[in-house]
Fold this sequence. Notes:
Elements: H1 15-28, H2 33-44, H3 46-55, H4 66-77, H5 83-91, H6 101-112, H7 121-132, H8 140-145, H9 152-173, E1 177-178, H10 234-237, E2 247-253, E3 256-262, E4 270-272, H11 273-277, E5 290-291, E6 297-298, E7 302-310, E8 313-322, E9 328-329, H12 331-337, E10 346-347, H13 354-360, E11 376-377, H14 397-413, E12 416-419, E13 426-429, E14 441-442, H15 462-469, E15 474-479, E16 488-489, E17 498-501, E18 504-508, H16 518-530, E19 536-539, E20 542-547, H17 550-567, E21 577-580, E22 582-585, E23 588-591, E24 594-597, H18 599-606, H19 614-626, H20 634-643, H21 655-671, E25 683-689, E26 693-701, E27 707-716, H22 726-740, H23 742-745, E28 749-754, H24 759-762, H25 775-784, E29 788-793, H26 800-807, H27 835-844, H28 846-856, H29 869-872, E30 878-881, E31 884-887, E32 890-892, H30 898-905, H31 912-919, E33 923-924, H32 928-937, H33 940-945, E34 967-976, E35 979-986, E36 992-997, H34 1002-1016, E37 1021-1024, H35 1028-1031, H36 1033-1041, E38 1045-1048, H37 1058-1070, H38 1079-1092, H39 1102-1107, H40 1126-1130, E39 1139-1143, E40 1152-1160, ...
Parallel strand pairs: 1-5, 3-9, 4-8, 11-16, 13-17, 25-28, 28-29, 32-33, 34-37, 37-38
Antiparallel strand pairs: 2-3, 2-10, 5-6, 7-8, 12-18, 13-14, 15-20, 15-21, 17-18, 19-20, 22-23, 23-24, 25-26, 26-27, 30-31, 31-32, 34-35, 35-36, 39-40, 39-43, 40-41, 41-42
Helix pairs in contact: 6-7, 7-9, 19-20, 19-26, 20-21, 22-25
Amino acid sequence: MLGKIDEFTPGQGSWRTYFKRFDSWIQVNEVPAEKQTRVFIAIMGSQAYETLSTLVGGREVEKLSIYEINSYMLEHFDPTPIAIAERYRLYTSKQLNGETFKEFGLRLQKISEQCDFGPFLEEALRDAFILGMEDPKKNIRSSLLVEKKLTFKQALEKAHQISLAENESDKLEGSSLVLHKVEKKQTISKYQRRCYGCNSTDHFRKDCPAKSEFCKHCGLQGHTEEACRKKAKPSNFSVNINHVSPYLYDVFINEIPLEMEIDTGSPVSIVNLSTFRSLKADLEQTRIRFTGYNGGSFRPLGCARVHLRTSEGKKPVSLYVCEEGANIIGRDWINILGSNASLKIRNVDIPLNLEQILHDCSDLFSDELGTLRNFKAKISLKPDVLPWYSRARPISFYKREKVDKILDDWENQGIVEKVETSEWAAPIVTPLKKDGSVRVCVDFSIGLNSKIDVNKYPLPRREEIFSVLAGGTRFTVIDLASAYLQMEVDEASRKYLTINTHKGLYRFTRLPFGLASAPAMWQKAMDGLLGGIPNVACYLDDVIITGRSEQEHLKTLQRVLRRFKSAGLRLRRNKCRFFESEVEFCGSTISEKGVQVSRSKTEAIEKIEIPTTVDQVRSFCGLINYYRNHINGLADIISPLYDLLKKDSAFTWGSVQQQSFDKAKKSLQEAVVLAHFDPGLPLVLATDASSKGIGAVLSHVLKNGHERPISMASRILSSSEQNYSTIEKETLAIVWAVKKFQQYLEGTNFSIVTDHRPLMYILNQAKGIPQTAAARIQRWAIFLSGFTFSIKYRKASENTNADALSRLPIHEKRATKSNKLPLHHIQELGESITYETIEEATRKDNILCRVSEMHSNDWNAYSKGGDLDHYYARRDQISKRGDCLLFMDRLLIPKSLRHSILRKLHDSHLGLDKTKALSRLYVWWPKIDEDIKSTIDACNSCSLMKRKAPSAAPIKSWKPADFPMHRIFVDFLGPLSGKLILVAIDDFTKWPEAIIMKDTTTEETIREIMLIFSRLGVPKELVSDNGPQFSSHLFSKFMTQHNIIHKRTPPFHPSSNGTAERFVQTLKGALANTNVTGLHGDLNKFLVGYRNAPHATTLTAPAIRMFGRRVRTWMDNLTPVERDNRHDVKGRRFVNGDKVLVRMYSKNYPKWQVGSIENVLGDRNYTVTVGGRAHHRHIDQLLKYNGSLAITAPGSIYTATTPEGIVEQSVMPPDDTDITSEVRSSYQPSTVCTPESLSYYSDYDDFDI
Length: 1249
């Protein structure tokens, strides 16, 4: 074989150059094509091969061609540079210390190869050379600048000549300091000088064999790596003899501590540039040159005057600065600090230090999101699957701003990106956290996850992990921040990760939580990244490190952190644990002693409390029986406990029972040999809930079908949790258990066992998150959607292990919850008004305080003719909640807040009728309609809305639309504040859309209309005028593609498009006084008000007709928060046959009538009989009967008539046929709300006095 190719060392040379050499080498040596790959693998070296194996993923390296290998390695080591960035690098390049002009010019030429200058290359090189040259005397650059038509080669040659002349002049003028730095002894040669091509002294340069070689350090041809002048010259300042340890001394320079090396061979003290920057001193130029022992010379960067702390105080000294090298105390400082004998010198091999390692890798703990390099997630689908698309789920106005911020943050961080259309889309769900903030989750459970061909990459087995840690004395656990989000998704796979939101479509560019294949992909990447490092194991996003000694541990930690740093990852500092003697990992306690069962696993059995009831004894015996095959003599042990279960046996707990209980518990702890966690075995999570606690057992299913427990847990329910319904308690048990054992369950397919059959349907992942479930269960279902599981039913009698733990739970310390209910604050311009604000103002309002007092005393002290007349006339409709008063369901507003409420009601400029209708949904005070009218009359914008036009001829009406988005009307408004607005109105619901346009081309108009279609659906008909946007061929084609009937109104007859025209005029009047900066905000406020106020034509709010419900607005913040009156209710419970006073609503009955409880329907609902007739009543409509009949006398109590629209409820038996009845939401949306169902819009001002 001709020539020699060394192995490739990453970081020392260019891969591009290395491959060119290898390609030439195999051509010269005529290596056959079938052997080239294996020869290349053998030559490239272990480090390069390890990197290549990681880059190719699952492909076999041996089956790749050398050109495919080059493609992978080139992308990794020498990615194609960006031309602009390379030009910046060229123009900012500076001549290095000790670098000749010709070497500087050669380096510039190499950089310019990627700059793409074309014919201007020569000029660019000349300019970069002159700008970056080192010219302390400033005469070389001046000489070049005066030259006309100067070329790069001419500039290089002239600078070289002037530099040679200056050097000769310096030798004649100045003295030279000699640094007698200790170096290895050199062999004297007859040639006297080294060859600068290979550093050899046995030949001249013209005979050098390295003339054709490429340097591994700089990549240039003509010299070896050892002779490369671009490498630091350690012989100038540092000892290059490996077995000699440095003599170190601690000094204080400018009061900054610094460790330096004693060097008696150097006449001056020197620091490197990196150290000098920390000293905060001024650097001055110097003409002194340093000469080494071998005769080579160089010039320092400069000299600084600093203060050195000595035993006699601070002294000013000189300190020289060089580009690189050790920090040296020379003879000049030694004389100041004292003789060698008196210096406290430390002769040490510098050990690794934890603080220093963490400091060097501090970038790992930054707050920015990391990006895993050289690995992208790829999603593979099962054969013949169809795309799955889900529409966006509605989000309340209260959450919308918070969700918007999260989506914007994700987009800014590059986690998601906006897309216009997609065949795939998963919905987002937005549960509230305990602190009132919003969590945005993606529901992949019923769509994408079922269609993914999940990567079968194995998770590491428990035995594999623990074998790596054997012999360790201390342990470090590393936690990766937002682990999966640090992995980018392959471009081709991103379309599957599209999410549908109220803001449109986004797709993930990072790997999201909840994706079925995410754990396997992440584990594969981590195994590849950490491969080859001893004493380290990784399980998903947790990494554990150890070592047989402290230094070995530190070295491993350093290697791991450097790998993470080079890979672009980020860690969570507060979750990392360093050098712990005992850590929890994979569910076991790991220490120097070995692997032990975690005490938390058997704590649930150890802390079982003494039974106090027969049911608790029965549960404990059931638990014992579940593991009866592992306990010898079980019957004799628990015989005293079984005696308590006999019929007609008195419950007596004595010493015999206590001994039996203690012995049984001890036998149970010894018998329940916990299984080691094995990722290859199926997992079963059995859960159960009782009235006072919840319990769970995590088990492996062995090959013989038996279940063997891995861990057990239980806890007491809080006082509020004990009030949950049965189905909520059972669901809570599952969610709590999954969180408890998340480290085992994440990334696996496991089974959940419950004895509550309805959960099989409600938590069935094939059916998705239930929309009709209670909000609490919806939030829990969202959390569970991030796991892959099946749910199975097991009879309570067969679920005794979890049942016993739930009935005999342990006390677990938990964070206390505040009983204060959350309030949704208004996010509007101006002051914020909430229910609490109104409470405070009510307490300070004299009139409302008197009304409150009158209400409490049944208005006995009322006298006519005062400020309370308005309230007295409505006394039967006034109620009290907390410190607030309500008229019907509308808040009574204190006088101090009425102006603010009026201003907010009027923000949307809806006109008199709609503003009054809007107010009747939320607030009331005497003569509120007159105040609204006065406010609107004083508004300039509203005055402009009152059009005075001659009466037009009768217009033929459009045929009524049959459903939402049957027909929409579109038009343009403007210019308004220099902007044009595209408006669209749905004919059926009157739902408006208004979009501020950047321009009004057909393309832009189609794009915005498509956004409307994506939110509301594609209409059957679209009506527009004859504007150029709507009459173009492109728009006609757009209508045809979507099968939309496009109807254009006659020219110069806008009334044919009357719906859009009327809305345009309304909107124009509302925005008459706005400006360009406030246009977006004013438009949004108008749309919120218009969409939620009853429309004059339909008598229904557009939002109700479009979505079947009212959307939340700022007015909903005024609604009183439901108080927690559970303790009051406990004192008013009734049983069948109890005599009670029943609230009646018929005109022919007094307000209260004596009745009896016929049937108990629940905690708060009863069937009562009054006069032989059955009625359904809430507990708030019942009073305990005290035996007095005077209260039932006709006329003794004011009789209230039933308000219009409310009918007497008939008896409705509880619905026990639907298994989901316990979790039904109180809200059942209807398709269309008719005016007849909205009686609360009626005018109550008939009461005004």
